[in-house]
Design goal:
Blueprint (H helix, E strand, L loop, with lengths): L1 H7 L6 H35 L3 H4 L7 H11 L8 H8 L3 E3 L9 E3 L5 H17 L1 H12 L7 H22 L5 H4 L6 H8 L1
Antiparallel strand pairs: 1-2
Helix pairs in contact: 2-4, 4-6, 6-7, 6-8, 7-8
Length: 196
């Protein structure tokens, strides 16, 4: 069987042409990669021209490409009076799925800019992977005794949190403070201290 396979399997004709085609495709891919790198560099330079973007890049896990994607989709921050407008624009606004007497779950609307939602979600995943404060927040949301969230729900909540942080930094020029961000965690010892 092996002997027959050696002489019967595989196309021998056009091997040289196939090799040439593969080399052409490899060259094209390398050229496109080089062009993409130049475009990304130009976008990142434009992003740095926006005031206070350096403060946002202080958040571990938020890189220039991610921030550029968010800012490009969001547009001029001055046209928004409230962060909820951007949240609605991204499709991360909450809507109740209910009618009449039926009360359904509350979900995100998925309306608005899909790419903005994509970049915010990528930023949330990256922040949870690289920033200790966001890891702690993710663990809190998924393990809290009262209304624990699923992992995906937690990432969406963190994406909204990141959006509020980015909005505040761009609007007010504040410096990112991880300790202030973690004040949202309601620890049991705090509740006991308030009750006493």
């Amino acid at each position: 069987i092996l002997q027959y396979a050696k002489v019967s399997v595989g196309i021998k004709d056009g091997a040289a042409a196939g090799k040439t085609a593969v080399q052409w495709f490899v060259r094209k891919i390398m050229e496109l990669d080089a062009e993409l790198a130049v475009i990304e560099e130009q976008i990142n330079q434009k992003c740095q021209e926006i005031p206070h973007t350096g403060n946002i890049l202080e958040i571990s896990g938020i890189g220039e490409n991610t921030l550029s994607g968010i800012l490009a989709e969001m547009g001029d921050i001055s046209r928004f009076d409230d962060v909820k407008e951007i949240q609605k624009l991204s499709g991360l606004g909450l809507v109740a799925c209910s009618s009449g007497k039926h009360k359904g779950e509350t979900k995100i609307s998925h309306r608005g800019r899909k790419r903005l939602r994509y970049w915010l979600f990528q930023a949330a995943k990256s922040a949870v992977a690289h920033a200790e404060e966001f890891k702690e927040l993710h663990v809190y949301y998924t393990t809290r005794a009262d209304n624990p969230l699923k992992k995906m729900q937690s990432l969406i909540v963190i994406a909204c949190k990141l959006l509020r942080i980015i909005y505040t930094i761009l609007k007010k020029g504040t410096v990112y403070d991880p300790k202030k961000m973690l004040l949202d965690i309601r620890r049991p010892e705090k509740k006991e201290a308030i009750a006493a």
